[in-house]
Structures are given as C-alpha cells and as structure tokens.
Amino acid sequence: MTEHGTRAPGPLDRTLRRLMGEEAWTRMLEGAFERRHPIGATLLRQGEAGTHVLALLSGVAKVSRRERDGDVRLLAFRGPGELLGEVAVLDDGVRSASVQAITDCTVAVLAKTVFLRFVGEQDLFPVMVRYAMGRLRESDLARSGGDVLPRLAAALVALADVSAGADGAGGARGARGAGRVELALTRDELAQHLGVSRNTVTAALAGLAAHRVEAGRRAITIGDLPALRRAAGTPRA
C-alpha cells in the first residue's frame, strides 16, 4: 500500500490478461488448445519463426537471450496471464529470445493467423503496444544500475508475487502470505537478470540473509517476504 492507502501496481496488474480485460482474454483462449510443459522444458526457442503465441495459464517461465558474444541474458520472468512470443508474430520475424519453464507450466497455444485475426477484430493493437512497452521498461529497470542489494531484493519480491499467481505450480510455495517462498533460481540466473557478476549477486544475497533469504545451489528461499519488501523499498503488490 502507498502512504495514502492506494495499492501500487504489482506484476500481476501488468499482465496482458489484466490489460485486455477478462472478457477479451477468455474469448482469445477460445481459439487455442492447451499444452503442458514440465519444469525445465523449452517453451519457445530463440531464432525460430514466430508461428504461434503462448498464453501462460499456470506456472512461471523465464525469458532469456543469447547474445552474439555467447553471453546469456535473463530478461524477465513471466507468470499466469502473460503472453509469450507475440513480438515475432506481430512483426513477422523470428524469436528474439527463448522461454523456459521454471515450474510446471500450462499454456494455451494460438496459431499466428488466429491470434492476428483476433487482435485485429478486437482492435487490440494499442493494448499490445502498451503491453510490449511495459515489459521492455520492466526489463530495463532490472539492469538500471545503482545499489545491487535493493535491486536484487526487488527482483526476488517481483518473482515471488508472480509465482503467487501461478496456481500453486512448483517453484514457489507460500508466496501469498508471510511463510517461506522457494524460487527455482540460481545465482548465475540472478546475475544475468541484473546485469552484474555472480560474485556480486553472492555478496548481495549474503547481505539479505538478515531478511531471511537463503541461497542454495538450485533455489533461493525467502523466509520473510514482508521483510524483503521493506529491503526492496516496495509496497505489497
């Protein structure tokens, strides 16, 4: 909450489902079929043609891009209500990034022709532009520089909030309350996301230990989400 009692927008407020409205989201899914992916599965692959889009129904996925020098950048995390792969469909190009499930995921698959027809008939192109710009701003903000500790705290809080809307699918538990939240995430991935070194992330995680953040080999555990919100300087999403 803000000091005036108005809830600040959180990750779940910026999903495409929220932007286009429940009715339009439901109608869009009428032209789709469901597909399930286990944790670790690749949902979309960088460099492939944009033949379809995916509406994420449950679970959490990460979006990453391999640069020309071989480095990998973790651009964002996506949860329920998000759309994946729409840029390559809208600009008739190839995938600019890969998407991998970090929990078990269920997606709705829409063919390119079906999706474009729906967007045109519903006059949703302005909404798609607003959605794309919001996601770009979010990705840039994570790597905007400044003190790494609050940036890391903010990234973990945002992912916990996204995971809270994931219908209980793996990777995060207890994100709705003050209990423990377990995120299937590594130090290397956090470093990619923030645009810093692994050692810098390790030092920042040590600094967050006082807020009951624990780092394992393949997971980050948040023991007190409200305390981590305070460290990040963010209100409850």
State the gist of this model.
With 237 residues, the protein is α+β, with helices and mostly antiparallel strands. 38% of the residues lie in helices and 21% in strands.
Which SSEs are present, and which pair or pack?
Elements: H1 16-20, H2 22-29, E1 33-37, E2 42-44, E3 52-58, E4 61-66, E5 72-78, E6 83-84, H3 86-90, E7 98-101, E8 105-111, H4 112-121, H5 125-142, H6 148-164, E9 181-183, H7 187-194, H8 198-207, E10 213-215, E11 220-222, H9 225-232
Antiparallel strand pairs: 1-8, 2-7, 3-6, 3-8, 4-5, 4-7, 9-11, 10-11
What does this structure look like?
By secondary structure, this protein is α+β, with helices and mostly antiparallel strands. Helices cover 38% and strands 21% of the residues. It has helices spanning 16-20, 22-29, 86-90, 112-121, 125-142, 148-164, 187-194, 198-207, 225-232; strands spanning 33-37, 42-44, 52-58, 61-66, 72-78, 83-84, 98-101, 105-111, 181-183, 213-215, 220-222. The strands form 3 sheets. It has a 4-stranded antiparallel β-sheet with strand order 1-8-3-6. Strands 2-7-4-5 form a 4-stranded antiparallel β-sheet. Strands 9-11-10 form a 3-stranded antiparallel β-sheet, with helices on one face. It is globular. The protein starts with 15 loop residues before the first helix and ends in a 5-residue tail after the last helix. The model is unreliable at 1-12 and 166-178 (pLDDT under 50).
Amino- and carboxy-terminal Cα gap:
8 Å
Number of strands: 11
The helix-and-strand class reads alpha+beta
Instruction: State which percent range the strand residues make up.
Output: 15-25%
Radius of gyration: 18 Å
